[in-house]
Amino acid sequence: MKLLRGIQHFSAFDKGVVATIGNFDGVHLGHQNLIRTLRAKANDLKLPLVLILFEPQPREYFQQEKAPARLSSLREKLDALRSCQIDYIYCLKFDSGLAHTSATDFARTYLFSTLNVKYLLIGEDFRFGKNREGDVSLLKELSSEYACDVNIYSNFCINENRISSTRIRTALQHGELSTATKYLGRPYSICGRVLHGDGRGRQWGIPTANLALHRSSLPLQGVFAVQVRIASKMVYGVANVGRRPTVDGSKNILEVHLFDFEQSIYGELLQVFFLHKLRDEVKFTSVDALIAQIYDDIAVAKEFLKNCNEITSISKLGVDLSAG
């Protein structure tokens, strides 16, 4: 899978490509099924498969901090897509220029001139271009000029529930991790590099790894039993996601206490799989009360992990932490 950016001539696309376009936030089962469908078509036509996405996501550009919390960073998204047999990711920078590009100009410039799309598969509610003026009807109208076949992808459902990033985000916000896992096809995870923290945890006898998130908002908050990938090693622990209201409260942070782990991992990239929510964040009346609760959380997490059926499958998942 190769990552492409910018408008230029790609000689590999002279014969055309099959493509889809969207945010693919979370790369859930619906996304995966769409890509499998497109992969089969690409094989039939003997053309490369191109997935087109935006960074930042359009709603993040327009709504800024009010945009919904994204499920996956660009890195996490790309790593999840590597297992989907995609030939090329075409990542477009969503900026003022793109936001003000008419739907017709966008289709002509990016889909037909730059990528030479011959088969396009999109959702029926897909909208694009300035003021979201473009839709499936416009694409079908324009496609006749470029010998492109535009098709609509049917919604992917489980038990009559349409799988969507919004539905997964809602499940995570309510602590319904099993629902999120079912729709993602894997436990939800967040990646981050370990930073030097304030050392409070070590002073309390509960050392934690503090992860840089680079996100203004998160789709879940609270205390969780987790499994953590560190390079090729898998370890278990308890994690807090949120603002630490008792000791700080100034910004979102993900901190993880790893069980039976003494290795120095500053600067390492970790992937944290969320298995079970233990509780919401609480502002305690004293630090001693907080410390006592953390020890209780550790005990409850260890008890849960003894009986967790999802742990063995996680070892086969994860991002490429060797990528740096």
TrEMBL record:
Its EC number is 2.7.1.26, 2.7.7.2. The keyword Ribosomal protein does not apply. InterPro entries: Cyt_trans-like, FAD_synthase, Riboflavin_kinase, Riboflavin_kinase_bac, Riboflavin_kinase_bac/euk, Riboflavin_kinase_dom_sf, Rossmann-like_a/b/a_fold. It is an enzyme of class 2 (transferase). It comes from the Bacteria. Keywords: ATP-binding, FAD, Flavoprotein, FMN, Kinase, Multifunctional enzyme, Nucleotide-binding, Nucleotidyltransferase, Transferase. It catalyses: riboflavin + ATP = FMN + ADP + H(+); FMN + ATP + H(+) = FAD + diphosphate. GO terms for molecular function: ATP binding; FMN adenylyltransferase activity; riboflavin kinase activity. Residues 183-306 form the Riboflavin kinase domain. Pathway: Cofactor biosynthesis; FAD biosynthesis; FAD from FMN: step 1/1; Cofactor biosynthesis; FMN biosynthesis; FMN from riboflavin (ATP route): step 1/1. The keyword Nucleotide-binding applies. One of its GO terms (biological process) is riboflavin biosynthetic process. NCBIfam families: cyt_tran_rel, PRK05627.1-2, PRK05627.1-3, PRK05627.1-5, PRK05627.1-6, ribF. PANTHER family: RIBOFLAVIN KINASE, RIBOFLAVIN KINASE/FMN ADENYLYLTRANSFERASE. Belongs to the ribF family. Catalyzes the phosphorylation of riboflavin to FMN followed by the adenylation of FMN to FAD. This is Riboflavin biosynthesis protein. It comes from Fluoribacter gormanii.
